Structures are given as structure tokens and as C-alpha cells.
Amino acid sequence: MTKHIGIVLFTDVEELDAIGPWEVLSAWTQRFPEDGYAITCLSRSGGLVRCAKGLVIQAQHSFDDAPPLDVLIYPGGQGTRPQLHDDGQLDWLRRQRAAVPLMTSVCTGSLVYAAAGLLAHRPATTHWASLDLLAELDPTIDVRRDERFVDDGDTITASGVSAGIDMALHLIVRLAGPDRARHIRRYIQYEPAPPV
């Protein structure tokens, strides 16, 4: 039976927060279908979504018609800010927490998790510029300021933007083993060597 990984999209989502994990995980699921995973994107109403820097991408599913998820990935971006007070979005996330075995976030996606109460008394991280806000949203969170991502069992939070790539490779380690992750890292030629 196919297991489903879903990336949540919303207006003003940060492009790389969503596309980075998509690249990693779609490369894995397409090259190794025998591992039994598929990846999809979903948004509240489905359809086209305009990202933070103007890219328009398609959510294959709405919240209502998405398949049951085994992993949920919640990216960040400026579009997360109105969600911190959006009862409908927060209630939907709480329902997902009750049903989805592994909840992950990239960048300021963790702020929405915090606002929904999903990170209480847990270690977590976010984009460096939002670490204080994460602590303000829920003072019980053990804010990890220097970690690229934080794996706390059924919840993984990644720091800013490009950290979603590292988190997605870590997901492959968890779901299919380190050899698969090394293969995909090589396939996408992810060998960070900053020029400055």
C-alpha cells in the first residue's frame, strides 16, 4: 500500500521551503518506487498557489480530497503570519497531528505548529530571524537556535529555507535508510560549497 507524503502550500509560501523537499523526495519516490512512497502537494482549496517571490505552483489536492498522509511537510514564508491567528488552519493542523504519524516543518512553518499547540514542551527550531517569535508563541518550547533541523520523534522542525533539503534527506534516512539518502544526495548533486 502506498504511503503518502504531503507538502502544504499556501499564498506567500517561501518557494525553496516547499520545492527543496519536493526535489529531494520526488527524486527518491520516482527512482525507488519499490520503497512504497508517493509525494503530493495540498492546499486549503487545491489549485494554483502564488508563492512569496511570484512563482505560481499547483496543489494537486485540497485539504478535503488529499489522501491520508503518513508524513506532512509544512513550509514557511511570510504566508505563515496570518495563519498564526487563523482558527480554521490551526484546527486543521490539530486534526492532522491526531492522524499523521510524522509532522515536519521548514523555516517558519514551525511558527504555525507552535500557534496550534503542537510544539509544547518539545525541542524545535525555525528561521534564525524568527527564533524569538517561536519562543514567544509558546514559552515551553525548547528553542534550538543553532541546529539545522531538530528530530523529536514524531515531529521534525528545520531551520530556514535551504535547511528543508537537509531535513528531506534526513527523512529518507528515517524512511528508507542511509544508503537511499546517499544515493539521492549524489543524484541531485547536493554538495554545498558556498562561494563566499
From TrEMBL:
It holds the Pfam family DJ-1_PfpI. GO terms for biological process: regulation of DNA-templated transcription. It comes from the Bacteria. Coiled coil: none annotated. Residues 4-172 form the DJ-1/PfpI domain. PANTHER family: ARAC-FAMILY TRANSCRIPTIONAL REGULATOR, HTH-TYPE TRANSCRIPTIONAL REGULATOR RV1931C. This is Putative transcription regulator, AraC family protein.
